[in-house]
């Protein structure tokens, strides 16, 4: 499905936040195992997310960079509404059974039927979100990066940077490497960099103004084809 790389990157505050929303571990740096345990516990309570999102795609060989901004709403299981502002101008909706990619300027919508258990582009939840750390451990070598080896964002207190490298046993991995910026006040990644084509292409997802586990009506995830819009069902 072209151009859809929607890592939905949010868990829940769960048992790791005090009444003021502050990390219980903010005054100490944790080891990898503790960070992963906290993420795994948080994922168990994840129900929904509402956030602003920035998706950046960089192709170094072509010296191209595309930046798209929008809003994201997600509700388990597999219900998504992602709206990108112009120039991307795209709306993506999943009701758990169908997935629609609507581009108003092109007067057409792509419609996909999701097989049972299939998540397609929503499968980025496997990185400790709606999936489990156990599954990530099975497929990836996971490292906790020192702050001095990462970008400025990682120097902020309360940020842990994880590097995920596909294991040799993983068949046809889409990405050569994945970097997660995990906020210890949420135990979720607030940024995710995914490297493909041996690092020549980077897909970056950043989340802002995150709201976790607030009530989201199912009507949000319904899609009605507008009049005059062509429906395409790719194979």
SSE order and pairing:
Elements: H1 32-44, E1 48-59, E2 64-75, E3 79-84, E4 90-95, E5 98-103, E6 108-113, H2 133-139, E7 140-145, E8 159-166, E9 177-183, E10 188-196, E11 201-212, E12 230-232
Parallel strand pairs: 6-12
Antiparallel strand pairs: 1-2, 1-11, 2-3, 3-4, 4-5, 5-6, 7-8, 8-9, 9-10, 10-11
Overall radius of gyration:
18 Å
What is the chain-wise order of helices and strands? Answer: HEEEEEEHEEEEEE
Q: What would the principal axes of the Cα set say about the shape?
A: globular
Classified by CATH, the class is Mainly Beta
SS content category: mainly beta
Largest sheet: 12 strands, mixed
CATH superfamily: Lipoprotein localisation LolA/LolB/LppX
The name of the CATH topology is outer membrane lipoprotein receptor (LolB), chain A
Tell me the number of helical segments per DSSP (H or I, 4 or more residues long).
2
Commentary on this structure:
This protein is mainly beta and 235 residues long. The chain has one domain (14-209): outer membrane lipoprotein receptor (LolB), chain A (Clam). The chain contains 2 helices and 12 strands. It has helices spanning 32-44, 133-139; strands at residues 48-59, 64-75, 79-84, 90-95, 98-103, 108-113, 140-145, 159-166, 177-183, 188-196, 201-212, 230-232. It has a 12-stranded mixed beta sheet with strand order 7-8-9-10-11-1-2-3-4-5-6-12. A hairpin with a 4-residue loop joins β9 (177-183) and β10. The radius of gyration is 18 Å and the shape is globular. The chain starts with 31 loop residues before the first helix and ends with a strand. The model is unreliable at 1-26 and 119-125 (pLDDT under 50).
